[in-house]
Amino acid sequence: MLNTAIWNVRGLNRRDHQVAVRDLANEFRLHFIALLETRVLQNNVTRIQSGLLSRWRWFVDYAGPGNRIWIAWNDEFIDVDILNADSQFVHCRVHVHELHETVLLTVVYGANELSARRELWQGLIDLAITVGNEPWLVGGDFNAVLDMSEVSGASGDIQVAMNEFNDCILQTGLLPLPMQGERFTWHNCSLDGRSLWKRLDRLLVNDIWMERWPNLYYTCLTPRTSDHSPLVLKGDCRNMQVSLFRFDNYLALSPEFLASVHSIWRHPIVGTPMYSVTRKLKALKPVFRQQRRCKGDLAMNVKLAAGFLEVAQNILQYDRHNSLLLLLEHCCQNFNTSKLLS
Questions:
Q1: What is the pLDDT of residue 84?
Q2: CB-CB contact of 24 with 30 (8 Å)
Q3: Start and end of every Endonuclease/exonuclease/phosphatase domain (predicted)?
């Protein structure tokens, strides 16, 4: 399926924001990414884009407020045709090579002002008429919530904004795509105790999409370097495998264990605490893998030990009087006892 991410990055001029975007693309093996609120001047576009994903194709329209929505895709996996570039959305057709499937994808970045967002709602309603029987995904930062359960903290009167957003969804026939992860996608990062959380970012689909991929869902990640969470759609959940962090307990007994953990843990990671922990655990994986190799082939040693036990049981049943002598002779002939004792 199409591995997609949409993220309000809140600026791409800073290096830590650029690193976070590259990490996101690599971690989830993305084919398509949309970046909102890039704040990059037009004369810096090429330099920033080449430093992010140099081999990918890019689209950005600086004829209007072009630093609002950037999209990029890996043309080894997908083809993208831009159908409509508006000030608050980019609408495109995406062809997935491997699946021979074509879908419509609309990236949204809603205006802050209520009156300006009305143009977005009408634009989505007009697009819905043209979609026909094609699968359609609409996602991004809508700068609006659907109900008060998507707000935590004092937010003022937002009833009119909620009503207009709900009316747009009703007229377009869009459905919420199942989501896991963070409930709120934006935080005001207040330092005076007046914290405000909202679910401003989401993915919506039409009924054709839902019928085609009924088990698909997206993940709302921790915000990382932005005040918004990245939204990641990755494959069909029936084929998704959860990657767990594992290590063999015996490695903790090695004298180099604590030194290895300390060398990774002392490096500062930009982002939320949970993101920092996740990245450090990922960095420890190759370290533990190398330590495991230095201890020999654990799987082979287990097989040898199992064989050793089986032979011992057979010999004891065959000749209890000479069991110890026969056992030692057999081990010397058939097993590398040095591996068992190391």
A1: 95
A2: yes
A3: 7-228
Task: Please determine, for residue 280, whether its predicted confidence score (pLDDT) is greater than 80.
Answer: no
- Rounded to 5 degrees, what are φ and ψ at 159? -65, -45
Alpha carbons 301 and 236: distance in angstroms, whole number: 38
The pLDDT of residue 63 is above 60: yes
Dihedral in degrees, nearest 10, Cα atoms 89, 95, 97, 100: 140
Per residue in 234-261, pLDDT tens? 875 344 344 556 667 777 777 777 887 8
To which H or E segment does residue 138 belong? strand 136-141
| Per-residue pLDDT at 161 | 96
Q: Which numeric CATH code is attached to 4-233?
A: 3.60.10.10
Question: What distance in Å separates the CA atoms of residue 96 and residue 239, rounded to the nearest whole number?
Answer: 17
Query: Percentages helix, strand, coil for the chain, rounded to the nearest 5?
Result: 40, 20, 40
pLDDT on residue 316: 63
Round to whole Å and give the CA distance between 79 and 72.
11
DSSP 176-226: EPPEEE-S--EE---SSS---EE--EEEEE-HHHHHH-TT--EEE---TTS
pLDDT the model gives residue 240: 38
Q: How many helices (H) and strands (E) does the chain have?
A: 10, 16
Q: What is the pLDDT at residue 99?
A: 83
Q: By the 8 A CB rule, do 250 and 295 touch? A: yes
Q: Where are the domains of the chain?
A: 4-233, 249-294, 298-341
Amino acid at 112: N
Q: Write the burial class of residue 31 (CB in 10 Å: 0-12 exposed, 13-18 middle, 19+ buried).
A: buried
Q: Rounded to whole angstroms, how far apart are CA atoms 234 and 241?
A: 11
* Span 124-145, average pLDDT: 96
The tens digit of pLDDT for each residue in 164-178 reads 999 999 999 999 999
**33, 24 Cβ separation under 8 angstroms:** yes
Largest Cα–Cα separation, the chain: 96
Q: Using 50, 70 and 90 to split pLDDT, how confident is the model at 36? A: very high
